[in-house]
Amino acid sequence: MSVSFIGGRGGIIVKQYKWLVGLSLGVFFAVLVLVGCQSRQPKTIKIVHLAPLTGSASSYGSFGVNAAKMAVEEINSNGGVKLPDGSQVKIEYTEVDETSNSAGAIEGTKKAISLEPLVILGPNRSGGVLAAEKLWKEAKIPALTDATSAQTTRQGNPYTFRMQISSEYWIPLLVKTAVEKYNVKRPAVIYGLNDYSKANWVATEPAMAKFDLKPVIVQTFNDNDQDFSAQLLAIKKSGADSIFLYGYTPEVGKITRQRSELGMKNIPIFSERAASVPSVFDLAGKENYEGMVTTTTMCQGDPDPKIQEFIKKYDAKYHQPFSASHVIHYDSVYIVANVVGKVGLDREKIRQELAKLDYQGAMGHYVADKEGNLVHHMRTQVWKNDQWVMLMSESYPVER
Asked: For the whole model, what pTM was predicted?
């Protein structure tokens, strides 16, 4: 025998029971949706920095990582970044070793992508950028790179941006400085047989031609060579009044020292940013490094208050000299923070904002051109009496 409650008090109880079950299920599913949304919402601004932590360029990597970490700590200690919705989000920073070669850049980029960052910093060298740029393009992750080859921002990749100026601008200003500040008439050139140094040599002849100059002699060397006496003695015999030297830091330091040992200390050296790395100074020796002239995007002798404030903070935190061209990611972190503060935690909106960037940082004014280049100035400097002194400065027009 079965009993059914169709009306009366029993019907009311059944209806109330059904209503309560429905309400409970509704609340349950609402909570699930809310938790799901929260789990998908990034809780930090995740930045992955591809830097050479091991290998021949590890000193560059240490300067870059130190500078980036300093910016992250400054921002986070002040509460993080305020998003458009008013909430505060802190930066989560991770460095990944890319060893400053193409294979390392590819593997490092794959690891970086697996960490799901909003933005990638690096890689360091042009070969690494060219080898790995398709990976962050496919992942649709903006990358603020270091590389100096003009080709790195000419691959049609809208996710590649560059925090260094193209090497096309280094040599013309270096030659101009040699002529106008040192009255150079008989330049010699010595360069390493690697892509980085060859590019500087290729830019040298047309730059010198503008001043009716030609190298009186051209010499080359291989990476990891130890003895450069044959090349230097040939330069001495040529009657050169200056040496344009292009190479990686170990060779530049050794050539600078051996020049003095061969009685050629009176012949000034003109080089590019690699020669301003502290390890070159150590290899060359203090007495042999005096008078070194280099290109740079930031001169530590620049009286600009923002630059001097950065130098003071870096010195106080790390108590070590640094390479001015390799601490640029201090500004990169602040650029990311500024952009995220405007558009929020959306990679595509971040990319779009970077493509129209106009930002004043500690080390310069960053403006995005149509290729994704953000830096449009160059300096030359000389090491004199234990400090860098700025010689010349140029800024270049931006094509947007």
From this structure: 0.86
